[in-house]
Amino acid sequence: MLHDPNRVYVFDTTLRDGEQVPGCQLTTPEKIEIARELESLGIDIIEAGFPASSPGDFQSVVEIAKAVTNPTVCALTRAHQKDIDAAAEALKYAKHPRIHTGIGSSDMHIRTKFNSTREEILERAVAAVKYAKKFVEDIEFYAEDAGRADIHYLALMVESVIAAGATVVNIPDTNGYCLPDQYGSKIRFLKENVKNIDKAIISVHCHNDLGLATANSVAGLQNGARQIEGTINGIGERAGNTSIEEVVMILKTHHDLGLHTNINTKQFYELSRMVSTQMRMPVQPNKAIVGANAFAHSSGIHQDGFLKNRENYEIIRPEDVGFPSASIVLTARSGRHALKFHLERLGYTLNKEELADAYARFLTLADSKLNIDDEDLKGLMVGQLAKV
Ligand code: KIV
Ligand code: ZN
Predict the structure, then answer these.
(1) What DSSP line would sit under 78-115, residue for residue?
(2) Taking phi first (over 0 means left), then psi (-120 to 50 degrees means alpha), and beta for anything else, what does residue 115 get?
């Protein structure tokens, strides 16, 4: 079968990188529930955990591997044989197992985290991939802190691990350091300079310390990466990981990019709520795609334009991400078109003068009350008009 060059694989790490957030730990049954939802969303790869980190994590990977069929199930390791042994053992029941092994690639990590040299780290990287390859065919290698690594050393590392058998090479911006053009150029450099790069898929794994995780991930895809790693709601330690729903909807909205995923976007909203509840991590109201206000129009100018043609202020249809519906919020900034819209929805038809009168009383009410609901509107109309 021919490989589609424009297909982007989506790798979810909500249950591994996402779950590293303090206070967000999940039980195995909760993880299984999320994994099943991720499968139904169409996620290609689920990173189920880091089996060597604890017996609980080991068991979660085992149970997730048993619970899902279509996605690849991936387990994280350091470049240590005992980690790789644990991952291989935990993945025994996976239909499509992947081991995700790796090591630091920046001089900062090499010197101050590993107290080592570039040469020694390169040897360890290659040895880890070769060792993991004894257990499974599908090996992803991560070059930790690639965002700050020397590009020539990074290219050498990527080339060496592909020669050792890596099928996916992950280029993490572990500290969320890069600017989009820097990160995109790194991916382009690897694509153009690494021997046999086409034998592996380049993966982008970005963190959000500067609020650039989504932009960097998209820059990576535009420059040749074909796997994107992230989490639902962008959950993750510090400022979080790339938000999967954002990247997927960017590719869908900008179809001129020519890239596509296999994701059933209509399930995003429900899954977002499930992850938020189980992880006890609220979604900020103005969060793109899944925030409570993502499809709420509140200023008079926007409401008027939206009511004339929703595309004036709506680049994504709420139903495409499973959001209940767009809303016209009534506040003191709302115009009379918005008030008319809501009154008609409740069955009141007003002529111009009646609407002007109702609008004046509405403004007085809205100045003293934050949320104007249907009961308030009905109260406003008492005695003024007969219902249609
Ligand atoms: O951010 C990172 O570098 C990681 C790796 C372990 C893949 O999460
Ligand atoms: Zn990470």
Answers:
(1) -S-HHHHHHHHHHGGG-SSEEEEEEEE-SHHIIIIIS-
(2) left
**Tens digits of residue pLDDT in 233-288:** 999 999 999 999 999 999 999 999 999 999 999 999 999 999 999 999 999 999 99
205 lines ligand 1 (CB under 6 A): yes
Instruction: Report yes or no for ipTM above 0.95.
Output: yes
Nearest ligand for residue 142 CA:
1
For the CA of 76, the nearest atom of ligand 1: 6
Quick check: 87 and 102 in contact, CB under 8 A? no
Between the CA of 175 and the centroid of ligand 2 the distance, in Å, is 8
Which helix (H) or strand (E) element contains residue 12? strand 9-12
The alpha carbon of 144 and the centre of ligand 1 are apart by a number of angstroms equal to 6
Q: Which residues are registered as beta bridge partners of 12? A: 46, 230
Rg over CA atoms, the chain: 25
Is residue 309 classed as helix, strand or coil in its secondary structure? coil
- Which residue from 44, 165, 163, 169 is spatially nearest to 96, judged by alpha carbons? 44
**Ligand 1 site-directed mutation target among 14, 17, 207, most atoms within 8 Å of CB:** 17
| Nearest-ligand number for the alpha carbon of 106 | 1
| 43-79 pLDDT, tens digit each | 999 999 999 999 999 999 999 999 999 999 999 999 9
Structure tokens at 360: 């004046």
The encoded tokens of residue 76 equal 């994280």
d(CA 9, CA 276): 24
Do residues 99 and 87 lie in contact, with contact meaning Cβ atoms separated by under 8 Å?
A: yes
Closest C-alpha residue for ligand 1 atom 8: 17
Give the closest residue (by CA) to ligand 1 atom 2. Answer: 174
Proportion of the chain above pLDDT 70, given as a percent: 98
The minimum-distance atom of ligand 1 relative to the CA of 145 is 3
Q: Using a cut of 0.80, tell me whether the model's pTM lies above it.
A: yes
Angle, alpha carbons 248-20-129 (nearest 5°): 75
Please tell me the distance between residue 252's alpha carbon and the centre of ligand 1 in angstroms.
Answer: 26
Residues 6+ apart with CB under 8 A from 93: 62, 65, 66
Question: Is the CB of 78 inside a 6 Å radius of any atom of ligand 1?
Answer: no
